[in-house]
Design a protein that fits this description.
The protein is mainly α and 239 residues long. It contains 11 helices and no strands.
């Protein structure tokens, strides 16, 4: 253990610095939203009373969704759920606005990871170019599990940044995130009063997660077998 700490001491310190910076940014963003009155049901009810069902109301909601996804990577429900409660008679508007704005935020996070993730990873690994490439290659191999990571109760914003760091196919990420964000947002908007409030709802959600995980594994296995078969064919041709 001592040898491990000695060997990776600088990497651990840098990792803790990154975590600390992320926590500070998250807390500051949340406090700003809190002080501006954009976090509770009462806050959004007051906003609705002032602006009504106007275009400006939904533009503000969309902007808030983008802010919460990018700067508060723990949960994207800070805005979604309260707005769904306030506009419970027009949930489709809440869903569409949340879905599109959260998806746009996800694409932004992907490009943040793609443009800066490798540099941060390299800094974290003390400029070890070889190790950085190995980790990126390892992350890239898990592209098939990206949709699953977006639907499971994981910090999906971090998953997206990692996908950008691994330079996964941008079109795949945009399409997969469009679908998964739609499902996830629908659960937040429509499921808050149904699925998530009752024990049977969580069973349904858990079974859906398991089914999606099994399907993901099957697709991954088929893809791996194809790669293996293709590699064997290439070896046979060389022989």
């Amino acid at each position: 253990m001592k040898n491990f700490l000695k060997k990776y001491r600088l990497t651990i310190i840098k990792g803790l610095i990154i975590i600390a910076v992320a926590v500070v940014i998250t807390l500051i963003t949340y406090l700003i939203l809190r002080l501006c009155g954009f976090t509770t049901v009462e806050d959004f009810q007051a906003l609705k009373d002032r602006l009504g069902d106007s275009v400006w109301f939904w533009i503000i909601i969309a902007i808030l969704q983008v802010i919460q996804v990018i700067f508060i990577p723990i949960s994207n429900q800070i805005v979604t759920v309260p707005v769904a409660i306030v506009f419970n008679d027009q949930l489709w508007k809440v869903w569409i606005t949340s879905w599109i704005s959260i998806w746009v935020s996800t694409v932004i996070l992907y490009w943040i990871g793609r443009l800066g993730g490798e540099k941060i990873l390299k800094w974290l690994l003390n400029d070890d170019e070889e190790q950085t490439k190995k980790i990126i290659a390892w992350l890239n191999r898990g592209w098939i599990f990206y949709p699953l990571g977006m639907l499971l109760p994981l910090p999906d914003d971090i998953v997206t940044i990692l996908s950008g760091t691994a330079k996964m196919n941008s079109w795949f990420i945009m399409f997969a995130s469009l679908i998964t964000r739609g499902i996830d947002t629908a659960f937040s908007v429509y499921g808050y009063g149904l699925l998530s409030r009752y024990w049977w709802g969580w069973i349904v959600v858990s079974l859906a997660w398991v089914l999606f995980a099994v399907l993901t594994y099957i697709v991954w296995k088929i893809n791996e077998n194809r790669k293996k078969a293709k590699k064997e064919e290439e070896i046979e041709k060389l022989d």
